[in-house]
Amino acid sequence: MRVLVALSSLSLCLALLACSDQSQREADLGADEAAPSGSLVSSSGSGARGVASEDELAGTETFVTAAPAGAVVLPATGLVENVLVVSIDTLRWDRLECYGYPRPTSPNLASIASRGVVFEEARTQAPQTAPAHASLFSSSYPAVHRVINVHGPTPQLFQLPSGLTTLAELLSEADIETGAFVSGGNLTRRMAMDRGFQTWDEELTDISDRINRCVRWMLAPERGRFFAFLHTYQVHAPYLPPREWYEVFADPAYEGPLRSRTEKYLDMETKEAWEAATGPAYWEGMLSYDDADVAFLSSLYDGEIRYVDGELRRLWEYLLNAGLLRNTAVIFLSDHGEEFRDHGKYQHDQVYEELLHVPLIVRLPPDLEREGYRGRVDEVVELIDVAPTVADLMGVASSEASWSGRSLVGLLSSAGSDASTQQGSVTDGREVDRPTFSELVIDPGPKYHRTVRWRGWKYIHIWQKDIDHTWEYLFHLSDDPRERHNLIDSAEQEPQRVLTALRQLLEERSVANAEEAERVGPGGAAEIDDDMLELMLKLGYVGK
Q1: 39: in domain
Q2: Measured between alpha carbons, how far is 362 from 360 in angstroms, rounded to an integer?
Q3: How many helices (DSSP H) and strands (DSSP E) are in the chain?
Q4: Rounded Cα gap, residues 153 and 156, in angstroms
Q5: What is the mean predicted confidence (pLDDT) over 427-434?
Q6: CATH at 376
Q7: In-domain check, residue 544
Q8: pLDDT score recorded for residue 343
């Protein structure tokens, strides 16, 4: 084992970000056999190559740390000094290797997850960016915060109510430094999403740029305890992976219309490609897509995930080399999934499981890992649980915040218990029967989607206001995980008994949400400006 060299955090950051000679480093780290060549440190979009474990990194000449081994200073309260949350917008849980996906989309994240806690059954509160992140930040349901995505011909911005306490506000009051590095769009300060963040960096750029800026902030001199939030739209439509990953994942035999359209964008820089591939242009002809077209589109999405995975590897190197992993919890999640005609549509404006079931992976410092904070948890949890979990990890009391979620720290510690090693997962018996709720408002209409999942069953209630029409769906997810068989009109006793119970649960939650919404008061509203409108055009949320 070579002697570890201590460097200052800022010097390390600058050295890593400026690195241009990667050949020896790639040899030291090892490489994925199928991976294309590319720069390890790049702001231009070329992917990092290979898969590196912490053990491999620790054995290389280039491994440096901010303190000698064993010199970890534990926080006075809580389990960790710092927390980094990484939100990969639009990432389906079932496209990741750590959740069983057979294609090599995410070897680096799988390596990270193998020594972390993987939540098998995490659900988002809403399948769209704005309401999902508002719930994530405030641990409240969408009907309480009333933040929705920008939609329709006359889009308007709805802001987070001031009566809600956000995670960043709570941590800031506890003298924890807070910084967010986001990609804008429906995650914007215009919606008051920046409340409590002392640093809010908002720009629609490649994930490599978001990582670079976040790392510089985390490793700044005299940085105290921190909570960092990193967000990227990289896997969001338009699906435009770097050419090297396009060639790995796209079917070379496909000769349909999407190939020439896609290849037109691949030689452009990320920002230029996103500007060219605006929503309406990118989705032209989608109503006539055949199965081969959909499969090709889906492969482009896989290529985007693989590119993001390479960038996550680069982020992990920064954290390793800076010694931050010794006292920092890292949480990987997505705000919602993506649909590829699973239920007749594309993107994310329904409430089926491909959109609500999200990845949630928590990686804790090695000392906690050795104490059993690793494994797999199969209890259903929600994104509203993330804020109280982060506060709990950092030793900050959240009881006064009136949050709807609960801390998952107990599940993190039990994930590595003897009970989980036989079956590979563990269920905490305290709240096995806890129902989970998700909502979606689509404008124009508006069209209100509400859903409750409980004991392996799921009920969906949809009401469109302008035509006063209701749709209902009942699925037995235990037998029908793809939600193909609507049992709402079943004459059998069990579905009807469950339906009654689920309707009651949803009604009780709706009443509780209305009462809580009245308590916190209304949020603000603002007309969308020209810059925001242009960005929403690029993301496909509004038409030309």
Answers
A1: yes
A2: 7
A3: 20, 18
A4: 10
A5: 52
A6: 3.40.720.10
A7: no
A8: 83
